[in-house]
């Protein structure tokens, strides 16, 4: 039977809570999560949904995969049911969106051919991405005590650049509606290991003392919307996580998921998302949402990479440009599965660089709010000699944190 995602059409959280004071500290994260959960628990329409799930238990053509009492931060439940039952549900619950599950794919990079190198072979020129963002050692801050969830294909924790930097690995089981801890941190495709290296890998990463959690959201490069929601719920409910790095998406603007991402801000988590690899006038969701930090790619020449997705969007009478900023993403060396390093092209390479800079800022200024951190990152950018709609506010810079 098909899987369906059910959540309120109205954004209950943004209507009830101010996001201005949302902070990233452990204590604040716990409190904010409780506040968001309370919004849903106290809402009359949501109580109707909870009662509805009780009423349908035991039906032959319905299987509840994720119930409201579990991971209830986005106000979403996930149900396996027949198409006929889904039509009946929409009539019974007009205040809720009934969305059929669908695939969500990895934003795949291009790998530069014959670029493989061992660590001893890496040159300063190979590490141009660090020079481009004005990162130099020693750096005053290193991302210590900052935790980033990498929602990707997995991470190979045995890579020399990443040893001791992955605190745990989990996978998201849709049919059981569960998050399962994995005995070992492995990569099912290779992408997540390259991403992880650019966040905190020795020599290649921006925040070498940051802690990563491996969230296996797109095994072998493919997941689903339901996977994505369970992953976000899990991150929101883990108060040690402050940043979520995402390099997957759906082509175009997919409005049904925007409010789920916005709920992450309400609990003090910053989503940093790749804009896509389809060039100008093409973007993907969630990288084109207003509530995320959307990242495009630049190259060694100080230009926006030709593949970097960008667009001007008009959503709910608000016009804005995607991406919000850019970072090195063309010919960027990072760690690959089973050791060694390769140069890859993609906004997936730019995104973890921004996540790393965000970790540095959070270590230096732990009391930043969600909006403060986004503003600080945007204010640290260097304007490129490129159209504004291609680069956002420009190329991210570490600057005086080094």
CATH architecture of the largest domain: 3-Layer(aba) Sandwich
CATH classification class of the largest domain: Alpha Beta
Overall body shape: globular
Q: What fraction of residues sit in β-strands?
A: 25-35%
Q: Would you write up a description of this structure?
A:
- With 402 residues, the protein is an alpha/beta fold.
- It folds into 2 domains: 100 residues, no CATH class; 298 residues, Rossmann fold.
- Helix content is 28%, strand content 26%.
- The chain contains 11 helices and 23 strands.
- Helix 9 packs across helix 10.
Any descriptors?
402 residues, alpha/beta, Rossmann fold, 2 domains, four-stranded antiparallel β-sheet, 23 strands, 28% helix
Brief digest:
The protein is an alpha/beta fold and 402 residues long. It is built from eleven helices and 23 strands.
């Amino acid at each position: 039977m098909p899987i369906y995602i059910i959540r309120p059409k109205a954004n209950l959280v943004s209507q009830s809570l101010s996001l201005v004071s949302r902070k990233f500290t452990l204590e604040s994260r716990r409190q904010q999560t409780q506040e968001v959960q309370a919004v849903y628990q106290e809402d009359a329409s949501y109580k109707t949904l909870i009662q509805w799930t009780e009423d349908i238990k035991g039906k032959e053509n319905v299987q509840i995969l994720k119930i409201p009492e579990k991971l209830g931060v986005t106000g979403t439940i996930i149900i396996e049911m027949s198409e006929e039952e889904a039509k009946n549900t929409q009539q019974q619950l007009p205040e809720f969106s009934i969305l059929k599950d669908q695939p969500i794919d990895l934003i795949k990079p291009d790998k530069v051919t014959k670029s493989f190198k061992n660590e001893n072979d890496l040159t300063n020129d190979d590490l141009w991405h660090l020079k481009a963002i004005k990162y130099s050692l020693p750096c005053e801050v290193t991302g210590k005590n900052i935790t980033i969830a990498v929602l990707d294909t997995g991470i190979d924790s045995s890579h020399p650049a990443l040893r001791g930097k992955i605190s745990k690995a989990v996978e998201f089981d849709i049919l059981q509606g569960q998050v399962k801890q994995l005995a070992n941190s492995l990569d099912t495709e290779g992408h997540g290991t390259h991403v992880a290296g650019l966040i905190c890998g020795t020599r290649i990463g921006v925040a070498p003392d940051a802690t990563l959690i491996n969230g296996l959201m797109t095994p072998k490069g493919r997941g689903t919307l339901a996977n994505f929601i369970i992953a976000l719920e899990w991150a929101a409910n883990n108060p040690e996580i402050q940043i979520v790095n995402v390099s997957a998406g759906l082509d175009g603007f997919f409005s049904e998921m925007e409010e789920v991402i916005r709920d992450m801000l309400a609990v003090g988590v910053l989503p940093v998302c790749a804009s896509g690899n389809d060039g100008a006038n093409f973007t993907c969701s969630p990288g084109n949402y207003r509530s995320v930090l959307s990242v495009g790619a630049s190259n060694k020449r100080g230009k926006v990479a030709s593949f970097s997705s960008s667009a001007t969007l008009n959503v709910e009478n608000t016009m804005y440009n995607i991406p919000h900023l850019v970072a090195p993403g063309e010919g960027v060396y990072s760690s690959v599965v089973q050791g060694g390093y390769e140069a890859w092209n993609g906004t997936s390479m730019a995104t973890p660089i921004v996540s790393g800079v965000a970790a540095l800022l959070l270590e230096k200024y732990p009391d930043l709010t969600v909006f403060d951190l986004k503003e600080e990152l945007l204010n640290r950018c260097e304007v490129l000699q490129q159209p504004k709609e291609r680069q956002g506010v420009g190329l991210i810079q570490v600057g005086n944190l080094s």
